[in-house]
Write a structure and sequence with these properties.
alpha/beta; 4 domains; 6-stranded mixed beta sheet; 20 strands; about 20% strand; extended
């Protein structure tokens, strides 16, 4: 069974929204409160008829309705016809028994629906309530009925439904979740049938021995000795009932530490794995909330690999704030909740392959930001931040929603491809490397059809990178050059510059000093100079194209 799409009507923040899904992995990303968890909750409701682990009909409340729908109802005459309807629909594949036209699209399709609507049986009672003049400040769900139906208009019963879906949320998994079943599986696998019987018998006999101790007899002698609670004999005893006694009495330990006392990260990891290992062979799909919580990079790497192994081709729905999870599960499986809903299933396959192999790049920043500046190194980032602060009352660019990302190793193309189809405004600061026509102008043609992608550089081939461009902007005179050099150079290097005989010699010296060669340590010197620029209170000028990089109007 596969879920092809999900339709939500008046559910939480979604008034009318359809979400199409990938058949294998769906990784939901978005800002806080974008609706990632809401989609998983809707899937849990329509697939398992549960909300946050409890029966949905018991948890159904006014808080589940879309705010606009609530406002419209409160502004109406509040008649039964004005009461909003909440609908969650899952359009499916490979469940022919659930085929029909009982869906909001009236399509002949396979699927299931949860519908919460006014119950006509309560028409008179609701009218009496209105006539009594009682205040109505929310949706009166007491007059609603909640139905779980397939598209053929048949009631779905949990025990006989045609699919199985596992929901895993580490934040609400009880420490004993899956423990008894896991221990039972271990015992049945490790022991022969007669050995299992003997172990159970020995355990029960051990408990009976506990009941015969003097300490227990002393407690029982004094317990209700005056028969005020009951006229029969009241005692305490260890539970020796065979059914489940053994696994209930045993506990999991990690390096001899009881499970409930180990760290949160280890608990989260073990609980997720217990749920997957116990259920993965018997389910059609998995829903999972932020598996990265409390985990180190190495442990997260192991967990993601285990999720992939145990998923065994089953459909996966997962929320995350981790670029590592995103890249490792394949970045083209993104289901992005931004201003709209968008999948990246058409992302360049080369980019996908690169990031699966090198998952440590912070690609999520490109996916979530509306305005991105890509730069080649930390020097560019520091200088741009200083320029922005100088022109915006000391605010950093991120305060105004501009994310400056240093691109390392994988190149600009990887990050551009992510932002290109999403619609992210991406300004790329490029070095022209002494050939603006070939290195920048030609590259711009590749993205001519995408106005949200801008490649920006100096048009002067002499300004081949950031440093010579900054020098040119601050070298209209020898005095200005020395003033700028005093900011960016160490005292020792500045003294070497100062003794150069002419202005031209001084200019050539500082430009040459910033040229990099393998092994000469100039990269670190560039960063040191950029830090000096960032921290200075002295004024300096910058080339116009750097201002253009920070302009998203």
């Amino acid at each position: 069974m596969l879920v092809k799409s999900l339709c939500l009507h008046n559910f939480k923040k979604f008034q009318n929204q359809t979400f199409d899904f990938n058949e294998d992995v769906n990784t939901f990303v978005g800002d806080n409160n974008a609706g990632k968890s809401t989609i998983l909750e809707a899937l849990e409701i329509v697939l398992n008829f549960q909300y946050r682990g409890r029966p949905f009909n018991n948890e159904f409340s006014p808080d589940l309705f879309n705010n606009d729908a609530v406002a419209a109802f409160l502004a109406s005459s509040k008649s039964p016809a004005d009461l909003p309807v909440l609908v969650i629909e899952a359009y499916m594949k490979d469940v022919p028994d659930y085929r029909g036209t009982n869906n909001s699209l009236l399509n002949d399709a396979q699927g299931v629906q949860v519908k919460a609507s006014f119950d006509p049986d309560f028409t008179d009672a609701y009218q009496d309530y209105l006539d009594a003049g009682a205040p109505i400040t929310s949706i009166p769900v007491e007059f609603y009925k909640v139905e779980w139906m397939d598209f053929a208009w048949n009631v779905i019963k949990p025990m006989t439904k045609k699919f199985r879906a596992l929901y895993i949320d580490p934040t609400r998994i009880h420490p004993t979740f899956g423990k008894n079943q896991y221990i039972s599986n271990v015992l049945s696998t490790a022991l022969k049938k007669d050995e299992g019987f003997r172990l159970s018998l020995n355990y029960r006999e051990t408990l009976q021995t506990f009941n015969d101790t003097d300490e227990v007899k002393t407690v029982n002698k004094e317990l209700d000795s005056d028969n005020k609670i009951t006229n029969k004999k009241l005692t305490i005893a260890a539970n020796t009932i065979p059914a489940g006694a053994l696994q209930n009495g045993l506990q999991l330990e990690v390096d001899a530490v009881p499970f409930h006392m180990i760290g949160k990260g280890e608990q989260s990891k073990v609980q997720i794995k217990l749920a997957l290992h116990n259920k993965s062979k018997d389910i059609d799909l998995v829903m999972m909330e932020e598996p990265e919580n409390h985990l180190s990079h190495v442990e997260l790497s192991r967990l993601i690999q285990d999720i992939e192994d145990q998923r065994n081709g089953k459909q996966l729905f997962i929320t995350t704030h981790s670029s590592y999870v995103l890249n490792k599960l394949s970045i083209d499986k993104i289901c992005l909740l931004h201003d709209s809903y968008k999948r990246l299933h058409l992302l360049d396959k080369g980019v996908v392959k690169t990031l699966k192999r090198l998952p440590g790049y912070d690609t999520l920043r490109v996916a979530l930001s509306k305005k991105v500046v890509l730069v080649e190194g930390p020097s560019d980032e520091l200088v741009l931040k200083k320029i922005y602060m100088a022109n915006n009352e000391g605010r950093l660019p991120e305060c105004d929603g501009i994310d400056i990302i240093v691109v390392r190793g994988v190149g600009f193309k990887t990050f551009i491809e992510i932002g290109k189809d999403i619609g992210t405004s991406v300004n790329v600061l490029r070095d022209n490397d002494g050939d603006y026509a070939n290195n920048v102008a030609e590259a711009r043609k590749i993205y001519a059809a995408h106005p949200n992608i801008k490649l920006i550089s100096s048009t002067d081939n002499n300004d081949f990178s950031l440093e010579p461009a900054m020098i040119s902007a601050n070298a209209t005179s020898e005095k200005e050059l020395l003033s700028f050099a005093k900011i960016v150079l160490s005292t020792q290097t500045y003294n070497l510059l100062a003794v150069e005989p002419t202005f031209e010699d001084k200019l050539a010296f500082i430009v040459d000093w910033f040229k990099s060669a393998d092994g000469d340590g100039k990269g670190k010197k560039k960063v040191d100079s950029a830090i000096k620029l960032f921290e200075t209170t002295e004024s300096f000028k910058y080339p116009a194209f750097l201002g253009e990089v920070l302009n998203f109007d």
